[in-house]
Amino acid sequence: MASRRRTLLKVIILGDSGVGKTSLMNQYVNKKFSNQYKATIGADFLTKEVQFEDRLFTLQIWDTAGQERFQSLGVAFYRGADCCVLVYDVNSMKSFDNLNNWREEFLIQVNYFP
Fold first, then answer.
1. 46-73 as b/e: b if 16+ CB within 10 A
2. Does residue 14 contact residue 87 with C-beta atoms inside 8 Å?
3. 26 with 11: CB under 8 angstroms?
4. In terms of CATH, what superfamily is 5-30+54-109?
């Protein structure tokens, strides 16, 4: 039996406060939903293993507080991130408009300059 290669990928979830980042992460990883979430303080993460073709991936999915007062987590939170998921509230045009700011911050923090 051939051994499977395992790859760790750090995924961060970004978006304004209250858009559902924690709910999205918990639904994807645990297949559970609760409407009783409290605001995330700082950051939290869950892991999920997924298989694609002959490779096994461990997704380390990081959830952060959307409030500006936690943006100082920046460098440590973004360090080593492979990608991000941008989340907005379909009932809030402002949260959609802010996605570009979240995207730009991600690109700056991971030193990606196309």
1. eeeeeeeeeeeeebbbbbbbbeeebeee
2. yes
3. no
4. P-loop containing nucleotide triphosphate hydrolases (3.40.50.300)
Q: How far apart are the first and last CA of the chain?
A: 41
DSSP character at residue 35: S
The string of pLDDT tens digits covering residues 34-60 is 776 665 655 678 999 999 888 999 999
- Is-contact 44 34, C-beta < 8 A? no
Tens-digit pLDDT profile for residues 48-91:
999 988 899 999 999 876 655 445 556 778 889 999 999 999 99
Locate tokens 């007062």: which residue?
69
Residues making up the chain, counted from first to last: 114
Main-chain dihedrals φ then ψ at residue 28, nearest 5 degrees: -70, -45
pTM of the model: 0.81
Per-residue tokens: 25: 């992460």
